[in-house]
DNA sequence: TTCGGCGTAA
DNA sequence: TATAATTACGCCGAAG
């Protein structure tokens, strides 16, 4: 095998940066620093390095605007617009990137990147190197030679075309050098170089092919057919000669190839990580960490080190006695992290396999597989009292509490802290947070013991970082007073669960089955054939092909068959109404009867939902397995399901407490709108009041229809209204809807001003906040896509309202939980449904607990308007009667 | 296994 | 110019 020829990669920095800038959407950091060109440059150059594995790399840049070409021709590049202000600062960032990458760059006063590359390519070729030129500029094709190829970027950044001498011959029938003559004839609008009028690329190529070069063409101008071209060639001869000089890349620029100084060498990893982190190039951070792993060559199994910082080697404990001794010794320490590795995701059922502890300067592990949970819990109890740090405290606390430990509030929870810092992120697991906030890879997949130690160590380090960031962001109180204590509240709610009356559930299932069978028959009859009723696709064929009904609207994949469509079709064919009914019953049967049954824990006879604290972008909780926040209530048939939700045993009942109009009250408060505040203070029906204002009638004359419209407008306001959405909702024309909204804003001027201001501020800051300082970043506001941008604006309007409601009910939950724990331990909070709390309590406690709950919910935070809580109580979730004290 | 359509809640 | 009013979770069929 012949010895490998060394390879030199020359990069036209300006060209690649411009390409990247225009090819990519306007990416930016949370602070609004534009990074798309830097990002594109980084990925493009990395791709070239991976694909071609050069031995040497030099990135060349234009230096100043004025070059020798301006001396030849004043108007050179005279039509170029100013560099886009979004792009200009990115050049400095690219240079920082190159420094971190340990790559050579090159610029020389009075020369363009082209000239430097031309010169270096000649020198490289002369030295026997294989030279590759990375650029988006076709002008560089003139540099192609036997040892010089151009990597031409096509279609943005996605494709690279390797152009060599053969390729040019094939597409133009010319040698690379002759491309200069072609350009001299046709000119270059982008550089403001005039060509010969009437000569475009086709003619120019053909002429040069025929006569060899510009001078050859000019010498034979008389022979050229086409009188106009011939004439122009004569009159413009000198201009073409000038153009040729301008188009020629200078291969004699004052620059010398120094191979020792431009090796393709490993980067300064720390610097690259720091810069990527600063620019929020998360995907690239991961690539770098992977590269570091390989570079380091260490087997991750052999070390407990988190890359970049080393964790102390963990002490391996052999028994609970040793653990107890260690915990006694940790008495004075703050900042202890505790991790418990379980053998399954269901922490109400799982067993513990390993325990990890980490503190300042030390760590310890204990394999717990053979240990009685109660013994482990008892040993850990003293440690829990000093409020250790967890990742997902609820999981560990529920397990320990189940095992019999008395648990206290956590001292920290990295999952919750990470969520608060960016609630929109899709993941808040420990490895992801380490990557995001520490730029460290947390390697998993070891033995449970090592994982426990490593995760505890990582959680401890991570928590310091997160706590600092929370303080800077002004979310310390929200974190410590609301979210951290809430972990324990939610854990207790999940553990206790909601008791289910299985007989009622089974009975409903049987009834639904009967109904579905009858409906299925009827629909097959009307359709004239059997088909899968649950398949929208098959249904569409029946409705729109077989029965010839008119399609109403489309989905991405075909004609829609949703409820709104079926409602319209109901006038044309009896099958539509049957289908609506079928869908309703099928939903209830599959999701709510069959879906719930297997989730009822046979030991407790209860449903133990998961209340997820780190899912929603607004600060709300979510509920899953099962979702108990969307149990039907609007339609009677579905509502009856609630009969199956019962208290834990005789002598107990359910108490429901819900906030009345909490979102509109919050809107009144944060907007400061006088009219709305006054209405709430007078205790008026806000929808009726809104109707009176919008329709210009006295309160007493508001009709039910007027109130219904006003209610829809109020909802719309909270969601970030559009006339289109409102018109659809109310079945009115868009202009009528527009009119309603205008009249609304005329009466509630404070609301209008607030909604405008909140969007403007979000644009300024990059995020919106709630009353307790919860944040949501809104990068969509800066999208170049109009729809995405509008979405961002509606989110900016809605999130402070929805999020503040979440703040308030969460704070109330924490307070109520403490009060009940102390005063009415048999009374339990069991569910939260966004603006509503459900309790399972002894009948005897009803008067006291009802008062305590209502009072706490209404006065947990004082707004400019009163908060109103309505109470209901009863033997199940369906049969609730208003409760008066 | 994943995605789209659909439907339930606040 | 044409336009999904916010936030979630779960079931099913169809496509992979």
Automatic annotation (TrEMBL):
Keyword Nucleotidyltransferase part of the UniProt annotation: yes
SMART domains: 53EXOc, HhH2, POLAc
Molecular-function annotations in GO: 5'-3' exonuclease activity; DNA binding; DNA-directed DNA polymerase activity
Entries under Pfam families matching the protein: 5_3_exonuc, 5_3_exonuc_N, DNA_pol_A
InterPro entries: 5-3_exonucl_a-hlix_arch_N, 5-3_exonuclease, 5-3_exonuclease_C_sf, DNA-dir_DNA_pol_A_CS, DNA-dir_DNA_pol_A_palm_dom, DNA/RNA_pol_sf, DNA_polI_H3TH, DNA_polymerase_1
Source superkingdom: Bacteria
Residue ranges annotated for the 5'-3' exonuclease domain, each copy included: 6-265
GO biological process: DNA-templated DNA replication; double-strand break repair
EC number(s) per entry: 2.7.7.7
Domain DNA-directed DNA polymerase family A palm: 638-845
UniProt keyword annotations, A-Z: DNA damage, DNA repair, DNA replication, DNA-binding, DNA-directed DNA polymerase, Exonuclease, Hydrolase, Nuclease, Nucleotidyltransferase, Transferase
Catalysed reaction equations from the record: DNA(n) + a 2'-deoxyribonucleoside 5'-triphosphate = DNA(n+1) + diphosphate
Signal peptide: none
Stated role: In addition to polymerase activity, this DNA polymerase exhibits 5'-3' exonuclease activity.
PANTHER family: DNA POLYMERASE I, DNA POLYMERASE NU
Subunit structure: Single-chain monomer with multiple functions.
Family in the record: Belongs to the DNA polymerase type-A family.
Name of the protein this chain belongs to: DNA polymerase I
Annotated source species: Neomoorella thermoacetica
Gene from which the chain derives: polA
